[in-house]
Design goal:
- By secondary structure, the chain is an all-alpha fold.
- The chain has 14 helices and no strands.
- Helix 1 (6-40) runs antiparallel to helix 14, helix 4 (80-113) crosses helix 8 and helix 4 (80-113) packs antiparallel against helix 11 (227-242).
Length: 302
């Protein structure tokens, strides 16, 4: 009589652990993406849904290729509006991620070097904004940044502005950067803190004993060892910022062009679902590049 080994008895559980993430990706990523991809190859129609269905059935593989229509993708390359929207989104995402790194790294470093008794409190303060609705927090910045808002009142009170002067940054890219940095700062701080907390302090002590200045020890030891956190935080922030819609719509002006606003306009304003789907597919492909770079970096670190 064969006796099953512990490895054989655990194999169903192991398969379950492996299958569940793939099922999650299949249901909530692959399936919606395939639906959007299908719509992007269709034509606009005055109907419900507002597009002409494609790939409804074909007898052979030649019928499949004959139904492919790249008209929407060609239109995106011909209209400068979409190219400018993509480039503007990348520019805002790069600048915002850089600002988040400049602000978040010192915060995470201070948290990692703080006494262990107060680290949980500092960590809770970073997570605290998540207890409030994201939309409410963005609306709060409207009350702060608008010309007659709290920021103008503060500067008038301390004498930086005259009684008739106002702060005119609302509905500008500056207001968008402020809103993005405020909203995404925890997503940058937490991965950095996780990496810096694991740093071996004896390495810095050894560098100090050997006469290495603190600034040089930071660039030679602390920063290189925290690169996984830097890359993770940058990717976590850069990817959603590129497709951000709420903050540019509420805090940005008419000249603030981002692909998220363009996508919303095509879907709900113009009701051009095929073109909007093509915009979404290209946006996804645009974001796959930094993900691939991040994975390559992780392999090199490992």
């Amino acid at each position: 009589m064969a006796i099953s080994s512990p490895e054989n008895r655990q194999s169903p559980t192991r398969w379950l652990v492996v299958i569940l993430p793939y099922l999650w990706l299949l249901l909530f990523f692959a399936a919606p993406f395939l639906i959007i991809l299908k719509i992007s190859f269709s034509d606009t129609a005055i109907a419900m849904p507002p597009y002409t269905p494609v790939f409804e059935g074909f007898a052979k593989i030649g019928d499949f290729f004959s139904q492919l229509d790249f008209e929407n993708y060609l239109f995106l390359t011909e209209d400068p509006l979409y190219i400018e929207a993509y480039l503007s989104s990348l520019r805002i995402a790069f600048i915002s991620t850089f600002l988040l790194l400049l602000i978040g790294y010192p915060m995470a470093l201070a948290m990692a070097r703080a006494p262990s008794t107060i680290r949980p409190t500092l960590l809770m303060l970073v997570i605290l904004p998540f207890w409030t609705s994201f939309l409410i927090r963005v609306y709060a910045w409207i009350g702060i940044l608008k010309p007659e808002g709290l920021l103008t009142l503060l500067f008038q009170t301390i004498g930086f502005l005259g009684p008739d002067e106002q702060v005119n940054i609302f509905r500008t890219d500056t207001a968008v950067f402020i809103g993005i940095v405020y909203s995404y700062l925890p997503f940058m701080v937490l991965p950095l803190y996780s990496a810096l907390e694991k740093l071996d302090g004896t390495l810095l002590e050894a560098a100090n004993d050997l006469g290495c200045p603190p600034w040089k020890a930071f660039w030679k030891i602390t920063f290189p060892l925290s690169l996984p956190g830097v890359i993770a935080g940058s990717m976590i922030c850069f990817i959603p910022i590129t497709g951000e819609f709420v903050i540019p719509d509420l805090l940005g002006g008419a000249e603030t062009l981002m692909i998220g606003k363009t996508l919303w306009t095509e879907f709900f304003g113009n009701r051009d679902w095929p073109l909007a789907s093509a915009v979404a597919v290209l946006l996804l492909l645009l974001l796959v590049v930094p993900i691939a770079i991040f994975q390559n970096q992780q392999k090199k670190v490992a």
